[in-house]
Write a structure and sequence with these properties.
71% helix, 224 residues, mainly alpha
Length: 224
């Protein structure tokens, strides 16, 4: 009975980590594809942080961690399982720390983002203009708070009709306000998603440690 449960646990870990590896590979591939568009960061203080780099980092982390979990469970390797456990533990600590910092310094972070986005509007860059156009069309917003944030001329993506007519009507809500409103409206679902991710990580750590202890008792510590 116990052996059957452990085998079920082992193959469950293999299947789940294999699916995570596929998802991580897809995210990584999409990040590499996005590099062709040479997107710049909308935040001048974080010049290296953009959509493509964020996707690349996320894809690399997901693929590496899930590959360790898959191979460790499949080969019943204590070293790989322990590494998988430690990486998941570190990831969960980073996520919880980031969440706590966001809650504690919410106002300061919001003010910094607002200031940085406003400064970014004044930069004369074709790539930045295209990124802002994409954001404003996708979110149906204009500027950080409203069209007056555009000191160098309001782009056509700010108008309710594109291109702007002789008497332009600008979108009333700024992009930062739009994002804040979206988070406020979806606060519950966002919180549930974070909790679900943490539960999955905790289950992954429990499964890995259970297999690790079983392998240690059976004397198959570094079976390849």
């Amino acid at each position: 009975m116990a052996q059957g449960c452990l085998k079920c646990l082992k193959y469950t870990m293999c299947v789940v980590n294999f699916l995570c590896f596929i998802c991580g590979t897809a995210v990584l591939g999409f990040g590499i594809y996005m590099l062709n568009f040479k997107m710049d960061s909308l935040l001048p203080s974080l010049a290296e942080l953009n959509v493509s780099s964020a996707l690349l980092i996320s894809g690399i982390i997901i693929t590496c961690v899930s590959f360790l979990g898959f191979l460790g469970a499949l080969k019943e390797n204590r070293c790989l399982l322990l590494t998988f456990f430690l990486l998941l533990f570190i990831l969960m600590l980073v996520e919880l720390t980031a969440a706590c910092l966001l809650l504690v310094y919410e106002n300061k972070i919001g003010a910094w983002v607002e200031k940085d986005l406003t400064n970014g509007l004044t930069r004369n860059s074709t790539a930045i203009s295209k990124d802002w156009d994409l954001v404003q069309v996708t979110l149906d917003c204009c500027g950080v708070h409203n069209y007056s944030d555009w000191r160098n001329g309001v782009p056509d993506s700010c108008c309710t009709t594109n291109p702007c007519g002789p008497n332009p009507v600008y979108k009333p809500m700024g992009c930062l306000d739009k994002v804040k409103t979206w988070f406020e409206e979806n606060f519950l679902s966002t919180g549930i998603s974070v909790i679900v991710i943490c539960i999955i990580e905790v289950l992954g750590m429990c499964f890995a440690m259970t297999l690790f202890c079983h392998i240690s008792r059976s004397g198959l510590g570094y079976k390849l």
